[in-house]
Write a structure and sequence with these properties.
The protein is elongated. It has 19 helices and ten strands. It has about 425 residues and is α+β, with helices and mostly antiparallel strands. Bound molecules: adenosine-5'-triphosphate and magnesium ion.
């Protein structure tokens, strides 16, 4: 039975469950020192001060968290006053960033789900567009996406507080939406992607009701802001578990809508190109080895099979190789719908084009070693070489070519001049919407 539904209120179900320090594995020594400082300063300032979200989930599972978020009863202005090294950010979701030399701690005030009347939408529209209504800890737990993401670690007594049945779902290894998944996914379709990401990353199951809701509402993922979707693509491909995340999305019909290019990768066997199917697991291995992959490489790896299969079809019809001049056009035709759907910036778009273009030049006939070395200064060369590594890993072919071009890279006299501004540091994901 779902630990929470609309007919059983939290109090009737005797929630919250409070696990004392002896009953859970979350230890202060595993929490980021900056987050500890923030938690204590808020607590000593007289506010409720909890570590929340993925950090509690991961520590409960014995995993190392990606980031440590703090939630408090202090309003953003009060947080601002407590920490000279802080700044209030965001409009739809106002929160404070506390800056340290070696990182940022995000501090949000307890919120509740906004009143639909104040949303200014038609009654039937559930999509949440504003999220600045402050609330109690209980309300804050209920507005979160999944039960396992809604646990609080209380710095005042080191207990873990569970309003929504998250502890039980951690034990049962289940991803369960808080409340009715149909409603929660319509409010914010990105939650459907997050369900698959969590299931893939943690090797959890998605409970049946949520699976069914994803199948019925999968098309609504198109309503989400392109910037959030782009962030999800990067998060998935850099997670080290992209293979199982994408498989979850495929199984629930989400992948065709969200990332049809990756759908093609995972179903490449149907196009006599089954070797492309291992691209995600090769990316996972590279991430696991700690390799840094640029966005152009991540996007390029997903898009290359579409480009190469298109090229194969054109060459089969024309019965000759695509001419260099037509290659650019063919590449653009495949890349542009992706670029438009995710509203990629000019810089990111250029880098992607350069990488995919340069990749295809590796197979050309080169007159001399000097030409090759000159080509290695092409702005997309390094990304293209990483793409070649992905493809060689997936197909098992082209190792000699990879070695050759790596040598060329080593012989390159100097680094190519940077084009445009350096890629900005990836913005930390805003909590939602
Ligand atoms: P990780 O940081 O490991 O990727 P996370 O669950 O911490 O996973 P964040 O994006 O850091 O993900 O979000 C922090 C918390 O904010 C989540 O655990 C969840 O409680 C809440 N949250 C994030 N996105 C949403 C959303 N779309 N709807 C509701 N709550 C959300
Ligand atoms: Mg997090």
């Amino acid at each position: 039975m779902a630990p929470y539904n609309e007919t059983v209120s939290a109090s009737e179900a005797e929630l919250p469950i409070v696990l004392s320090r002896a009953e859970h594995p979350v230890s202060r020594s595993d929490i980021d020192i900056n987050a500890i400082k923030v938690l204590y300063r808020l607590h000593h300032g007289g506010y409720k001060s909890y570590m929340v979200g993925g950090a509690v989930r991961d520590l409960m599972l014995g995993r190392r968290p990606k980031d440590f978020d703090v939630s408090t009863s202090a309003r953003p202005q009060q947080v601002r006053r407590l920490f000279r090294n802080s700044r209030i950010i965001g409009r739809r979701f106002r929160l404070a960033h506390v800056f340290f030399r070696d990182g940022i701690v995000e501090v949000s005030t307890f919120r509740r789900d906004p009143d639909p009347e104040s949303q200014g939408n038609a009654q039937s529209e559930l999509l949440i567009t504003d999220d600045n209504v402050f609330g109690s800890p209980e309300e804050d737990a209920y507005r979160r996406d999944f039960t396992i993401n809604a646990l609080f670690y209380d710095i005042s007594d080191f207990s873990v507080i569970d309003w929504v049945g998250g502890v039980e779902d951690l034990r049962g290894r289940k991803i369960r939406a808080i409340g009715d998944p149909e409603v929660r996914f319509q409010e914010d379709p990105v939650r459907m992607l997050r369900a698959c990401e969590l299931a893939g990353r943690l090797d959890f199951d998605i409970e049946e009701w949520a699976q069914a809701a994803i199948r019925s509402h999968r098309r609504e993922v198109e309503k989400a802001a392109p910037a959030r979707l782009t962030e999800e693509v990067c998060d998935i491909l850099l997670s080290g578990s992209s293979e199982s995340i994408l498989r979850w999305m495929m199984r629930l019909g989400l992948l065709e809508v969200f990332l049809p290019e990756a759908y093609l990768v995972l179903s490449a066997g149907e196009h006599d190109a089954g070797e492309f199917e291992s691209i995600p697991s090769v990316i996972d291995e590279m991430v696991g080895r700690g390799e840094t992959l640029s966005d152009a490489v991540l996007f390029g790896a997903v898009l290359l099979p579409s480009v190469l299969l298109r090229r194969r079809d054109v060459e089969a019809i024309d019965q000759r190789p695509v001419h260099r001049s037509a290659l650019r056009e063919l590449t653009s035709e495949v890349l542009e719908p992706f670029v438009a759907r995710f509203a990629l910036s000019r810089v990111r778009t250029d880098q992607l084009h350069h990488a995919v273009w340069a990749f295809q030049r590796f197979g050309a006939r080169w007159k001399s070693a000097g030409d090759r070395i000159r080509f290695s200064s092409h702005p997309g060369f390094d990304d293209a070489l990483a793409l070649l590594e992905v493809l060689v890993g997936a197909t098992g072919e082209g190792r000699a070519k990879l070695d050759l071009w790596r040598k060329v890279q080593q012989q390159r006299p100097e680094k190519p001049a940077p084009r445009g501004p350096a890629r900005p540091r990836r913005r930390r994901r805003r909590r939602r919407r």
